[in-house]
Amino acid sequence: MKRNKFFLMTMAVVVLTAVSCTGNRLHLYNWSYYTPPEVIEKFEKEFNVRVIIDEFASNEEMYTKLKSGGAGYDIVFPSQDYVSIMINQGMLEKIDKSLIPNLKNIDPAVLKKATYDPTMEYSVPYYWGAAGVIVNTAKVPNYEESWAIFGRSDLKGRMTMLDDMREVMGAALSYLGYSLNSKNPAEIEAARNLINNQWKPNLTKFDSETFGKGYANGEFWVVHCYAEMVYEEIMDDEQLMQDTKFFIPPPGGTAYVDNMCILNSTKNKELAHKFINFIHRPEIYAEFCDYFGFPATVNIPARQFIEGPSCYEAEDIVDAELKYDLGEALELYNDAWFNSIRVGN
């Protein structure tokens, strides 16, 4: 996974300069650390376009920006629960499947989980994965592979959890043996109490943006994270790479299916379809996965092109539960998160 970042940045400048004179532009709104530069460069060169990427750190941030007037994006990458919301609110363009022949490469097992849009009418799976925990084993040699690690007072001030309501609440609900889609007020209250009384006192902060850099510089030893956001920061530090362990707490963590969706405000509908089809070329999808150390969970033929090791395997998340749209019960989570857990952070 080691790369010369200066070289990548230099090449990106060259490619962008080469296409800057064209009128073809594709605007992506994607998660932070989720778009390999080499893949984007190949798409730009092949289709003679410029790709412009803005990033977000949570579904809530993405949705709020779009609803408050953030415009100009062609493709956005929401997780499954927000795909449901955006479909219901008429925010998405219908997928023209005739323009994306590589949809045939999508694993039917993933579509079976994608009950929010199982026939890909409005969304195409980008990646099926799970949030987990990264530990610096040189600093924390003994630990249990469990969400209980955040209850360790001896690690106080050296740990962070994601600033993401559904991820943190889902972790607590899962640890307590409940569904992370629970609508039971008593179970949600129990999760709130666990976070506030046992986990939060040991955390430096809730953070979805800078924990990777904090882990890389030694400030944090244990982080609740999406693995790629840490590995991107430490890939040039061979010793820290060796000391780093990522695990998904049983029974399988809090899973997600991130999706490529075309906004109904797009002015580049055909180009947006070409990008989605490009991503699901087997060799391109394998390159995307290799860059982050992912297994090729979504694209079946891409699996034969994977070259590097993965930080976890698809089998590790088979039992993980997806977060779904909670409807009116979302207010119970909002109350627990914004009026209690996040107060004072």
Mind explaining what this structure looks like?
The chain is of the alpha/beta class. The protein has two domains: 5-128 and 256-310, 3-Layer(aba) Sandwich (D-Maltodextrin-Binding Protein, domain 2); 129-254 and 320-341, Periplasmic binding protein-like II (D-Maltodextrin-Binding Protein, domain 2, 3-Layer(aba) Sandwich). It has helices at residues 5-19, 37-47, 59-67, 80-88, 108-113, 165-175, 185-199, 211-216, 227-234, 238-243, 269-279, 282-292, 330-341, and strands at 25-31, 50-56, 75-76, 124-136, 159-161, 203-206, 222-225, 244-247, 254-262, 321-322. Strands 1, 2, 3, 4, 5, 6, 7, 8, 9 and 10 form a ten-stranded mixed β-sheet that branches. Strand 1 (25-31), helix 2 (37-47) and strand 2 (50-56) form a beta-alpha-beta unit. Helix 6 (165-175) packs across helix 7 (185-199) and helix 7 packs parallel to helix 13. The radius of gyration is 20 Å and the shape is globular. It starts with a helix and ends with a helix. Mean pLDDT is 92; it is low at 1-22.
